[in-house]
Write a structure and sequence with these properties.
Distance between the termini: 52 Å
Number of domains: 1
Number of strands: 6
Helix content: 25-40%
Radius of gyration: 21 Å
Structural class: alpha+beta
Strand order of the largest sheet: 4-3-2-1-5-6
CATH topology: endopeptidase fold (from Nostoc punctiforme)
Order of helices and strands: HEHHHEEEHEHHHE
Largest sheet: 6 strands, antiparallel
CATH class: Alpha Beta
CATH superfamily: endopeptidase domain like (from Nostoc punctiforme)
Length: 262
């Protein structure tokens, strides 16, 4: 082999060695959570414990028998609030009717598993349910997660601490398609502006910034930051929740880390 050919061969090997891990990372989803270096500002991240129903309150490790009771109590409090209004809107009347009949099992099927109404389902099939989503922030090269958590409100937590909270979870990572970095940064900026706001699962206006659940925070951040709603529905007043799983199904998102069918 001539010196010129040998030099070319060495350069080729070095370029493959340097670039190969980055190429593999998007495909290799079985070796644990996404590495910090792979994350970009404005990415969306969904955690899910294998074989477990995601808790209604989205806090890791807290799903259990009290979850259904908590949801029913919160539902009754919301219905009482609507009943106290002298002139509820048509949307509130429709929502009241839907919630009055809804059981916790139906809530799990519709919100956590995004299963259309009327479709048979076995309650408790946790692998079908993804119930939480956060937004990636990058500051000085270090990743953080901005998320809305019941009891904590909208918070910013280091990715390392977030992973400790979700030890053993399956983790999906999504990136907005055809959205330039500056607009993905604007998605994160919108989310970061909400840090410190209270958690509110029962506010169905997705543009009301007084309180947030996790998927409402993501919907608003994408809508304002990227310039389009992730579900292509610009109407912020919803009859029921916009769920983390609906967000995951958005045609505007590439699931670049996808550990298993959801």
């Amino acid at each position: 082999m001539t010196r010129k050919r040998r030099s070319f061969f060495i350069i080729f090997l070095l370029s493959v060695t340097v670039s190969f891990p980055l190429l593999v990372r998007a495909e290799d989803t079985s070796s644990g959570p996404p590495e910090s270096a792979f994350l970009q500002a404005g990415d969306l991240i969904w955690p899910k414990k294998p074989g477990a129903v995601v808790p209604y309150n989205s806090r890791p490790g807290e799903a259990g028998e009290n979850d259904a009771t908590r949801w029913r109590d919160d539902k009754e409090a919301y219905l009482k609030q609507v009943r106290s209004e002298p002139s509820p809107s048509p949307q509130e009347k429709e929502r009241y009717s839907a919630l009055q009949k809804m059981t916790y099992e139906e809530f799990v099927s519709s919100y956590l598993a995004d299963r259309p109404a009327g479709q048979p389902a076995t309650f408790g099939v946790g692998d079908l349910s993804v119930g939480h989503v956060g937004i990636i922030d990058i500051a000085d090269g270090m990743p953080f997660v901005v998320e809305a958590i019941m009891g904590l409100g909208v918070r910013r937590i280091s990715y390392a601490d977030w992973l400790r909270d979700h030890r053993g979870d399956l983790i999906w990572l999504g990136r907005l398609k055809n959205v330039p970095p500056e607009k993905r940064s604007a998605v994160l900026k919108t989310a970061a502006e909400q840090v410190g706001k209270p958690y509110d699962f029962w506010d169905f206006n997705l543009k009301d910034t007084s309180g947030f659940c996790c998927s409402k925070l993501a919907w608003l951040s994408v809508s304002l930051g990227a310039g389009f709603p992730p579900d292509d529905d610009p109407n912020p007043e919803r009859i029921l929740w916009y769920s983390p799983k609906q967000l995951m199904k958005s045609k505007h998102i590439d699931l670049i880390v996808n550990p298993k069918p959801y």
